[in-house]
Design brief:
By secondary structure, this protein is mostly beta strands. The protein has one helix at about 60; strands at about 1-5, 10-20, 25-30, 45, 50-55, 65-70, 75-80, 95, 100-105. A 4-stranded antiparallel sheet has the order 4-5-6-7, with no helix packed on it. Strand 2 and strand 3 (about 25-30) form a beta hairpin. The longest helix is centred in the middle third of the chain and has 4 residues, at about 60. The chain is globular and about 50 Å long.
Length: about 110
């Protein structure tokens, strides 16, 4: 999974490895359903069939994280997470492991 964040838009590219040829092929591109989402793809994480994409500079640097449920070459966008605090950069880093999710927000006070 590779994210390519842009000011508006951005994509997450998903690749699959062919063990026989030891090569990679792109199987899908994920985009947010919100065309005004700022920095989509800045941070990405994958675990089993779930892919997370962070947009830390979205909405006055509040940030957000979008989730996708993937199945083969199809994907479905799931409910996004966000914070109400400006300049928290929620989604700056993402770690997704089975049913545990850690999202970085470097300036958000605990």
């Amino acid at each position: 999974v590779i994210g390519t964040q842009q000011p508006y838009g951005g994509k997450v590219y998903v690749f699959e490895k062919n063990e026989t040829s030891n090569s990679w092929r792109e199987i899908m591109q994920l985009v947010s359903s919100n065309p005004n989402l700022y920095s989509f793809g800045y941070a990405v994480g994958i675990s089993q069939n779930v892919i997370a994409s962070g947009s830390p500079f979205n909405n006055f640097d509040r940030g957000s994280v979008d989730f996708f449920n993937t199945n083969g070459e199809l994907s479905t966008e799931i409910l996004p997470l966000a914070t109400k605090n400006e300049n928290s950069f929620f989604g700056y880093t993402i770690c997704l492991n089975e049913d545990i999710l850690a999202i970085g927000a470097p300036t958000l006070d605990a």
